[in-house]
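Appendix C. Worked example: Ornithine cyclodeaminase
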Amino acid sequence: MKLYHRDAIEGAVGLDGNALAAVEAGFAALGRGEVVQPPILSMAIEEANGEVDVKTAHIRGAERFAIKVSPGFFDNPKLGLPSLNGLMLVFSARTGLVEAVLFDEGYLTQVRTALAGAIAAKQLSRENSRRVTVLGAGEQAERQVQALRLVRDLDSVDVWARRREAAEGYAERMRAMGLRVTVHDDVAEACTAADIIVTTTPSHLPLLHARDLPAGVHVTAMGSDSAQKRELDASVLIRADAFVCDSRAQSEGNGELKAFEGGEVPFKVHELGRVIAEGQRLRLSEDTLTVCDLTGTGVQDTAIANFALAQLVSG
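Step 2, the predicted output written as structure tokens:
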């Protein structure tokens, strides 16, 4: 068994085309019905404002599968500690023996989440998309833009965050990447000229409404990953010409389909894996409005863990 720490993993895996292809292949396998993916195991540790999620999946025919343990303790910054942590255990799919422990401290989750956003945009946004609006100013807000640049020729970013100083700091970091960045105090204003909108917040109340959406925009929502979180008003989902999620069951329990809890969903729900596997074309015109809800799936974790271990061994 090998133990790899974050420094080595970061040196081997980045936001590049090869990592994107690995995660996209995992989604496609899920869409073809070639994945065993149990429900998320989630546990709240309320007295410490914490939660722990365990995700896993097996891609049939793959040599290995991964189990990810992902703690989030959201008061940690007050203690000078990161909010997110975790590791991935990689097992042989033939013997069940542990082959490696990837003590990545949540890094691979950040990478595969960003790549999923890029894959959604690749499938659903206009090919000539150049301007992205980001709601939120944390680490994933940065990585989403970095990953988007693998699939779209972005040149401009509009950002909104609850704290203006956080948005200004984010803008400085994005400008260092050669992007034009505008900070906004209002969500609607930030979205006015967007080709792509990405929501990256832990909000418990909807931030984005149908009235905020320009024609033909693509929306990727990736912040809602638990029963308490919501970023999109139901009007956004209803207005969309095509609604896609990584997992319908997870979107209904943890994601944006919670808006219709207890009632019938009044539109067709597509899953990203099937869109990829079947070559579905859901954008029918420049004015088609698309929405993708990403809650994070076990197949993404197995895909990125297998990719990471292959890079580490070959390197």
